[in-house]
Amino acid sequence: MTSQTPATTSGGHENKPRLGPLHLSRASFFADFYVYPSLAAGFVAFAILMSPHRWLAVALAFVTGIAVWTFVEYIMHRYVLHHLTWIKDQHAKHHDDQMALIGTPTWLSLIVILILVLGPVATYTDMEIACGFTAGLMLGYLGYTLAHYGIHHWNARPASYLSRLKRRHALHHHFDDMGNFGVSNGFWDYVFGTNITVRRGESQAPDHH
User: Fold this and answer.
1) Cα–Cα distance, 134 to 119 (Å, whole number)
2) 95 with 173: CB under 8 angstroms?
3) pLDDT tens across 130-168, in order?
């Protein structure tokens, strides 16, 4: 067996073998794109069938779930992926190998959503609202996963939304990994003052394709 000597990248992370519990096969990585749309549709259908007259409340809960996800995305990236022991080491593998399919297995993210989202919301509201909210959050999470994959694997037209996301994320990877924590959007970086602004004369990070 050939030994591998860790090397240090410009960002200070060690280059380690592309292995680990969050390094997924293609089937595992893309399972989100089959599981979550189906579950979200089922949750919304169940909520409306349970209370057809409350369809507007379910729709508002759904939209709220999507909006809340953007905040969860920011908090998770800023405080969990970059600071929590073991998880930050796994996330460092992504910084070192940005084309690798590193992510959370669908079964694990689903368990977390059901326990930490559906359960508490159903406890303090009702099942219809909880289903609508959870469906929205699921699709918000899926949108984040899609955006992150697209940033690293797709080409983007100049001035397109994806192009702007790619530049924002490139600055996070190559210029300052303590900023631009929003992946699918930059709203909360502006709110909390972590949006990276590159001034003239500073080295600029290239877009990663």
Assistant:
1) 10
2) yes
3) 999 999 999 999 999 999 999 988 999 999 999 999 999
